[in-house]
């Protein structure tokens, strides 16, 4: 069996080849980048593969995304319409995501930015904590990662609400679904965490009208994809103080250009798309297990529904 790894970073490509070879003895794993000749392979694994891969490599039976999101694969074009596209499911990302989001929520609830300011000014003053019952935390997207984030925050005792396309049931989480429920969901979000995939239906969803439905002084955490948000509308809401702040891990353009206003905005916290990084060893174990199932003719989970885009 031949497995091609198409990842833009050479070291990551190499790591995937080693881990997959260790998991599937007998298989030949080889790296590919644009400009390389292709040949024949049974499976491809990659991130932003580009149309050139699919023109160069023949015989593919499935493509495995090295991320949970597949917009980077679908958005590039060239993926044959009948080639199964399989994404990572958790593979160590749910815990990271739950920790990243909990850190932001707990920091806000405990007013750590104000205490840090007080320290700079040598002020010793206890601040009144917000009423917990009024501190609604909304998680938009209740899939593998969103459900873990919502469940973890509910475990901390926050009033957590979640929103998804189809109805979900998560212990301790008030679940909303469908477009008609969106205004009611947003109205109760003191903090809104975006955990949606980037699809035709979610691109640009978070615009001025959407943000205006959040309570005044709400806080946005985007750990999903930058393309969900109309950046100018977000900046306007932050400038006016309608939104108290935003923690942004993902952006329309990555790396975030050095001149972008987000970098220095006093109400914005920026991280470089690290909310949940791909753990190669764990992910390769998951991909190898699915390859073994496919080889046996068994169905696998994580198959992307191309009509939905996730
Ligand atoms: P899943 O596919 O498991 O979950 C997606 C969720 O979003 C589902 O609950 C789905 O609803 C919901 N959804 C999709 N479209 C809509 C819509 N139009 N309206 C309402 N709800 C919708 O994805 P994961 O949880 O595994 O990952 C989520 C995203 O996180 C990824 O797509 C990726 O973009 C991002 N990500 C970011 C990382 C980072 O480091 N910043 C790392 C990893 C992932 P339903 O339940 O009805 O299907
Ligand atoms: C992913 C990501 O989709 O890293 O896994 O963003």
Task: Characterise the protein shown here.
- The chain is of the alpha/beta class.
- The chain has two domains: 2-91 and 279-295, 3-Layer(aba) Sandwich (Rossmann fold), CATH 3.40.50.720; 93-270, Rossmann fold, CATH 3.40.50.720.
- Helices cover 32% and strands 18% of the residues.
- The protein has a seven-stranded parallel beta sheet. It has a five-stranded parallel beta sheet with strand order 2-1-4-6-7, covered by helices on one side. The chain has a two-stranded parallel ribbon with strand order 3-5.
- The longest helix is centred in the first third of the chain and has 17 residues, at 93-109.
- It is elongated, with a radius of gyration of 21 Å.
- The model has no long low-confidence stretch (mean pLDDT 97).
- Oxalic acid binds at residues 67-69, 278.
